[in-house]
Amino acid sequence: MIEFANPVFAAFAIAASLMVLKTVAMSWLTVARMTAEKAGYRSPEDLKKTRLNPDPNPNQLEINDSVERVRRIQHNDLENVPFFIVAGFLYVLTAPPLWLAQVLFYGYVVTRLLHFVAYYTAQIHDIRAALWTPGSLIIIFMAVRVLFYPLGI
Fold first, then answer.
1. What's the pLDDT score for residue 46?
2. Which residue among 23, 65, 72, 108 is the one 20 to 30 A from 99 at the CA level?
3. How many Å apart are CA 77 and CA 83, to the nearest integer?
């Protein structure tokens, strides 16, 4: 049953909410980076003089690696987190054991947070991939379980 009294759903709701907050936080981090760097703006209208940009400069539209790094992290979240939310919600409907659901849901959250740290601190691709892979496998496991559940498998 889909209600907070169901501990599996409650665990999913916590994990999904954490992932939504983390993904939204990336937008705030992007703005903070753009403001700190006074660079990495994307639109020509961002060069208008405002309280937040008192000294506009055409160079502000140039690519800034510090800002782009955060954008890449958010892009990665947007490529992955929605699939977790959909697969996780459907997985709840299979009535999995609470311990397994918690391992999967919270394991996903941990892998995404560690992936963020690795990406933010400019770790090599191998490290980022090693942190991304378990989360992807969790999504695949849940989706496959959902596929086989109606078959009684």
1. 87
2. 23
3. 10
**23-32 CB contacts, 8 Å cutoff, 24+ apart:** 23/74, 23/77, 23/78, 23/81, 26/70, 26/73, 26/74, 26/77, 27/74, 29/70, 29/74, 30/67, 30/70, 30/71, 30/74
Q: Where are the domains of the chain?
A: 7-151
Tell the CATH topology of 7-151.
Four Helix Bundle (Hemerythrin (Met), subunit A) (1.20.120)
Query: What per-residue confidence (pLDDT) applies to 1?
Result: 66
Distance, in Å, from the CA atom of 148 to the CA atom of 42, rounded to the nearest integer, reads: 45
134 within 8 A of 80, measured Cβ to Cβ: no
State mean pLDDT over 76-88.
97
Per the confidence metrics, is the pTM higher than 0.85? yes
